[in-house]
Amino acid sequence: MARYAALLRGVNVGSTRLAMADLRRIVADLGHEDVKTYLQSGNVVFTSPPTKDDILAQGIERRLADELGLRVPVLVRSDSELAAVADASPYAAKQDDPTRMLVAFLSAAPTAAKVKELTVPAGENIEYAAIGREIHLHFPDGGYGRTKFTNAYLEKKLGMVATTRNWKSVLALRDLAAG
After folding, report:
1. Integer Cα distance of 105 and 85 in angstroms
2. Taking 70 as the threshold, does the pLDDT of residue 62 lie above it?
3. If you placed Cys at 46, which of 35, 71, 142, 177 could pair as Cys (CB 3.0 to 4.6 Å)?
């Protein structure tokens, strides 16, 4: 058995509402075990036989659409992938404020050419590093709330799904997935 975290894009931050009890039930009904949600923003950790991330994500997406009529992109990472994301942060050692660090989880690893197209919006102080299927973000002068370097920006520039979690959530999901 393996542990995974599913990250749902855009849940409970706009018009897409999903009760975490429904999310836990749907994931459990798919045959996954030890299902736990974290916060109210579409994070669910579960145990399942080793399976490809995209197959797990597609199962959750289909069930959300079929049962609740929600069309929500889902990204899945294994416990070891979450641990590697946390370990790879180029900003963790130099930033004490976890609200200034985030990770954008991507549906695929972007090409070097696509990463080169990312530019920091004028007047914003942002550092970023693309590592595998994630983009590590650092906002030394403030948080994510006012930036134009958002999921929508990343999705447009990279041509793929992105969902962002703050550093505290990344570490909590890593710990939950580790068991």
Report:
1. 10
2. yes
3. 35
